[in-house]
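Revision sheet: structure tokens.
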Amino acid sequence: MQWRIKGLVQKMLGYLPAGEQAHYLLQRRFGGLRDFKAEFESKVEDWRIMVGHFLSHGFPVQGARLFEIGTGWYPTFPFACYLGGARKVLTFDLNRHLKRELTLACARQMGSHLEVIASTCKVPIADVRARYQRLSETLDHRLDLAGATGGVIDYHAPADARATQLPAGSVDCVFSNSVLEHVPPEVIDGIFRESRRILAPAGMMFHSVNCGDHYAYVDRSITPLQYLRYSDRRWNFWQNAFLYQNRLRAHQFVDMAQRAGFLIALNTAHPTPLRLGQLATVPVHPRFAPFSPEQLCITTVDFISRPDPALPA
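Predicted:
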């Protein structure tokens, strides 16, 4: 599909009373949700990578109090963390996107990943299976995430991650996956400040950011860097209720975390020959002149940060 067609369709749907449901149905029929199994598998792999980063920094999922930003249409990360032995998984979303049919499908698919979850989290498979049995038996009767997980998963939507009302120091880890690229910069600043407040002194923040042009997923004629050719004014025309992209570069997310009082423990951002070559074909708008080619071309970053103990909470 030509990316401009998708952008215009989404923009029009954003103005219709039933636009959100129509958008969801289009995603199921033609978009990223048309192959649910593949979409789910990619999310499980993202979760596995995240937990690998956790463990490499001495942070186990088992027994942890986790806070997710951006639940989405189905709770892959909360389910996997619950099965891996998390003590609590709070999951906040600005809008109540959770869909019953996708949540049930997610739970069913989890059944074939129990050994992966056990080995990734380094917990006994018997414990994972017992938790999964409770999850699946409860969801067969009602969509009750808290009831199905013994109160471990706590879903909040609509909810603002800048103002959680949680006690200070009550969370061990704040995380998100492919969310921050869709959040206005000033909101990210607020999220990071609130994250630092609710994190325990030894806690950490993890974000995986896909900061390339998402229209490239539907239009193979463009690259993930094509949106760098536009001014803010022209690009704002293509923003819509279902696909907002802030166009922040990878290093900017990390810099914002540092300004919010975090020390960076992991930063995977690095330029690649492929992206540098793609960037050479894009007439970059002067709006991005302050950035080097290496900064501009990076389209993914995982980073871990911890509260700076030298700064007040």
